[in-house]
Amino acid sequence: MLFAGGSLAGFALPAAAYGMADGIADGTAEGAALPAGLVLTPAVVEAGSPVLVRVAAPRDARLEGSWQDGAGQAYALHFFAAREGGGWYALAGMGVEDAVGTSTLKITIHGAEGETEQGGTRDIVASVTIHPAHYRTESITVPPKFVEPGPEERKIVAAAKEAKTRAFASSAGRPLWSGDFVAPVKAQSTDSFGTRRMYNGKLAGVHTGMDFRAASGTVVRAGNAGVVVLAQPLYYEGNCVIVDHGLGLMSLYMHFSRIDVKAGQKVAKGQALGLSGATGRVTGPHLHWAIRWEGAMLDPAKLLRLRLPEAR
User: Fold this and answer.
1) What residue numbers bound the domain in which 99 lies?
2) What count of Cα atoms within 13 Å lies in the side-chain half-sphere of residue 198?
């Protein structure tokens, strides 16, 4: 069965790179060595892939940075200090629809006097190649109102867009997550992230999430700890929950049959959010799970394979 869920309605909707079987190997950007003290995981960066940026810096340092693709799309980097092992980390990535080719990663370290250059400040600049990810195209048939909404439906779509804009407007200034992310349901997943989708013969955009073949009534759990910033019905997404994990990272859960949390509620990793269903633009019951970082849509399957350090 093909699943039709996952539109963000108004928002731009090689395994070898991952190294070891029990996690993702550290490495450098393909084609050029990275500056000393900088490590990207995975080493080969694809559009839509989450990336863990590690920087060696003094424990009392302050870091800021940005990552810009060749088309000028830039994202701010938010660093946190690891609880164990030292180092500073930022969870980042280029969106599935961002430009491929050469990107520029710039990090500024404001550190203790005498431990960094130029009066306590040091810049790290690196060129990182963003590789294209090869996704397929599929065709799906849904009720016409989900392809060409009428006047009343357009009002609902506009209200849903406003609700999401408010939910995405701010994020906690520190990591709320705890360790690695976990799958939100115990069900088979489909390799659908990045697929170009044709709805009723018309290209609607790119599928920006991961679908699970979850039967109606399956318990859906938070992929990690955070705060619920939206829990309500939306037009395309159906009954939807969005969880803020801090530092611009959010997870989205769509097509619930029932929502069991409220906006503003803190949730732990693995806590029940509600029950899966078939609400919104769907062809059958399933869960659509998406990961959003600073507006970029990242592959949830690859996030599940990242080993994330605990914040200090």
Assistant:
1) 15-131
2) 7
Q: How far is CA 241 from CA 78, 212, 263, 278, in A?
A: 24, 16, 9, 14
Of 98, 131, 164, which residue is a domain's last? Answer: 131
What gap in Å lies between CA 214 and CA 272, rounded to an integer?
14
263 and 189 in a common domain = yes
Alpha carbon distance 35, 271 (integer Å):
40
pLDDT tens per residue, range 288-312: 999 999 999 999 999 999 999 999 8
* Local structure of residue 148 (DSSP, 8 states): S
pTM above 0.85, yes or no: no
Tokens representing 48 are 């839509």
The verdict on whether omega for the bond into residue 132 sits within 30 degrees of 0, i.e. cis, is no
- Give the 3-state secondary structure of residue 241: strand
Query: pLDDT digits over 219-245, tens only?
Result: 999 999 999 999 999 998 999 999 999
Angle at 86 between CA 125 and CA 251, to 5 degrees: 75
The string of DSSP letters for 100-134 reads PEEEEEEEEEE--TTTSHHHHEEEEEEEEEEEPP-
